[in-house]
Amino acid sequence: MWIWAGFITIIIFFLALDLGVFHKHDHVIKSREAGIWTAIWVTVALSFSGVIWWLFSEGLVDNPTQLTPQNAVLKYITGYLIELSLSIDNVFVIAVIFSSFKIPALYQHRVLFWGILGAIVFRGLMILFGVALINKFEWIIYVFGVFLLITAFRMLKSDDHAADPKNSWLFKQLKKIVPITSERHGHDFFIKRMGVTAATPLFVALMVIELTDILFALDSIPAILAITADPFIVFSSNILAILGLRSMYFLISRMLEKFRYINYSLVVILAFVGLKMLFSHYIHLPEWVSLTVIAVALIAGILASLLISKDKGEVPPRP
Fold first, then answer.
1. Counting beta carbons within 10 angstroms of the beta carbon of residue 147, is it exposed (0 to 12), middle (13 to 18) or buried (19 or more)?
2. Which of 220, 210, 97, 211 is nearest to 155 (CA)?
3. Contacts of 119 (CB under 8 A, 6+ apart)
4. What is the pLDDT of residues 183-240, one digit of tens each?
5. Where found (predicted)?
6. Domain residue spans in the chain?
């Protein structure tokens, strides 16, 4: 239990340091700053694999599946890459939400900070629930597998990123719960006018991002559970990937057109993980195979986006 408490304490410390020291004052996050922070978060996450090795080699965490330190590290890195790659799709949606609600770049980091704080809580609950389901009902893994295949197919065929968040079901329900104003007051989430407290566009964007992240978690968490049902590995890999999402957003959101093929990588990853779940009781792939497939799919999508120019023909719309 102290391992969990220690990890959560470290995460809280990182978040407090982020908002209270490094981003105490609102400012526009430039590409160079975003690149530095992305490198820092990736380094922290990959370095944590050493902690995973130590915890499992010393038997300091529950190990119901009897993982060796080597397998634990491979599962952690694979889970981290899955969540990191699926987070890229999140970036496109966040960009659309900010654009729709006209959130200035000056306040976007603040909105993302609180959005990710809420995401950590919800992800933790969903992970514990998902692990409990798999441990109690072994057949649920087939349900997760089919769900991921359906998600991959929908991602391939749909163009959800073009949708206006203001026309979404989430926004319409939010309007029924709290008064909403189009007026902004600095970085405040609420303003009071004539005795009525109303939500500003910042709060609306925060709520839409928060609820959208929960929907994304329905894809990413089953995907990681296909790699391992160890709760600490699933939680740590998921949370460390989420912590780097803010800097990743500011790094690649300005280059959305260049990553027009990345969603095909995500389709391949989701389809592969879904099939792995469906055949988990019949085919046992080595950990390095899953890691290789995910890494190659992600790199291929990035390289295709960078190397295939629009001049060479009509570029298909992003799924």
1. middle
2. 220
3. 210, 213, 214, 217, 242
4. 887 888 888 877 788 888 899 888 888 887 777 777 778 888 878 888 889 889 988 9
5. Membrane
6. 27-308
